[in-house]
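hey m, so remember when u said the tokens were messed up on ur end? i reran from scratch. heres the input so u can diff it against urs
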Amino acid sequence: MKNRFAHFSIRFLTVLLAGLFLLLLRSVGSNPVFAVLTPRFASPWELGKLLFWPLLLAAVIPLRDGGKFSERLPWLTLTPLAAVLIFWALTAVRPGPGAYLLAWIVLSAMALALAQRGILSKGDRSVWMVLAVAMGILFIMLTFLPPAFGPFLDPTDVAAMATIPC
């Protein structure tokens, strides 16, 4: 029991520190590598990067907990999608940044805890591998070619969010 909590704590701290590091990288400049890893603006899709890349880093940390990388893939894939939906709903409500931070912390903790328990890790894991790779490719492609609708729009850009008058 103590080891499981220690392994969870190591991965959770890794996710939090990696997410904060990505936010710091955001202000460094307009490097294409940093653009892929960090949110370029506050759209729900771009904020999903703050969950995907740190969870990917935490998933590959080799610990002696007996868990394999492939057992963590379902939550590496599902958590950013859940984050995009939650952040999109929060965008409609327009809360302060604290709500986004709380959602990020809770989703990270839930994903790591469920991955450690092995939930959804039964069966064929190749599907989850394909979905995780597809998610990474989508984060890379949609950084430079984002669609102009829904969760891909910057909520602070009034011109993008407003309707065009006739």
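this time it looks ok to me. The mean pLDDT is 84. if urs says something different then somethings off w ur setup not the seq
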